[in-house]
Amino acid sequence: xxxxLKIWRQKNAQDKGGIVEYPIDGIxxxxxxxxxxxxxxxxxxxxxxxxxxxxxxxxxxxxxxxxLFINGEAHGPDRGVTTCQLHMRMFKDGDTIFxxxxxxxxxxVIKDLVVDRSSFDRIQHAGGFISVxxxxxTIDANAIPVPKDDADxxxxxxxCIGCGAxxxxxxxxxxxxxxxxxxxxxxxxxxxxxxxTDRVLNMVHQMDLEGFGNCxxxxxxxxxxxxxxxxxxxxxxxREYLAASLKG
Amino acid sequence: MAQSAQLNASILKKVAMAxxxxxxxxxxxxxxxxxxxxxxxxxxxxxxxxxxxxxPLIQYVMQPILAFGVIxxxxxxxxxxxxxxAARPIAYAKYNGAANASWSSRNMIISGLVILAFLGLHFYDxxxxxxxxxxxxxxxxxxxxxxxxxxxxxxxxxxxGLYCVAFVLLGFHLWHGFASSLQSMGMHNKYSRFLxxxxxxxxxxxxxxxxxxxxxxxxxQ
Lengths: 248, 221
Description:
The structure holds 2 protein chains of 2 kinds.
Chain A: E1 3-9, E2 18-24, H1 33-46, E3 69-70, E4 73-74, E5 96-100, E6 109-111, E7 114-115, H2 118-127, H3 148-158, H4 165-169, H5 176-187, H6 190-193, H7 196-209, H8 220-224, H9 232-247
Parallel strand pairs in A: 1-5
Antiparallel strand pairs in A: 1-2, 3-4, 3-5, 6-7
Helix pairs in contact in A: 2-5, 2-7, 3-5, 5-7, 5-9, 7-9
Chain B: H1 10-37, H2 42-54, H3 56-86, H4 103-106, H5 108-136, H6 146-153, H7 157-184, H8 190-220
Helix pairs in contact in B: 1-2, 1-3, 1-7, 1-8, 5-7, 7-8
């Protein structure tokens, strides 16, 4: 395959940055998108040019590290996959592909396609946990009965890998899907209910401080989420927040 | 330490937006019902309009609440849009919004601005003359004038066309707004799915009825 890549290049956080065009040849349809970028970088290094910086880690679709906004969509045109699981067979020979970093005020660009997603970490630190006594008296979680439906929904919410595709794709740069998944995975379990009020108030407060936009329920986040996190979680977080507002 | 809930929290803002939206949806249902009477019976329409125009509860309690609801909904819409724009200071070179969200959900501000412009025309046509008639000129009540005033406004094809365009945009606004308000208030179950379908019907039927009423009076002349 012969392609034209239009890639966002930015030297550092202070640099203005811009789109740079790279023609590339010899791409196999069965290559992953990141392998295609590896080929590009190999060529750039051989020519003595700076390779394109991009995030990646497991390349198995589970770590949430890879990002990229490809042809106007987070993680590209495929559904239910991260960028590392996107394959070049989704594109046609001769295509022009735009590759940009995830864009949000709360996700500042560090270099090229790499963005700082530590705002998600700070939201997690604000309440995305349960406080457990680890002195040796910890009760086995399996000793507490949990309704199957609640356990399933909690597990589904916990499948969120925090990649930030929801923020990147939302026209408002809202982080509601991510935060709601983290609130839901605990709110549905008996162990999480103890701190439910503080959790939702603290996490939403931190989310607002980080400068994410407001959710307007377009549903784009759910469509682009590589883990299929449901909008149901946002509704649950809204209920949790309203209930917590009356208490807190 | 727990944060207290704050009135400017993003979730409370969207709930406030949803509540004001549902209030306005209720008003729309009442408005279209009253207007529809005009194509059934001139006398009943005059009677109903006179009741709405001179009932103290409606004039001095419901009307100010309605005005507050409309103003609040618009101002909050502008504030949220400005905040959302600020949340992405650098736009994407290529953004394929149509791949994952409906046009109506992505363009609520556009349909909202068209509705706002329409409200300006609507107030110019009906509300300002009504205020002038009752409170400035101090004219004695006339329970037979309403039908004639309504029909007269739809004589002009351009005005009738503008009304119809605004009603189409109202339909787009309702298409997303109705279901979105339920989601904002935390409803996401079998009842909300049914209510969302009701919302889609509402978004089609109510603007369609407004258009039918406008065209009926235009072509009847």
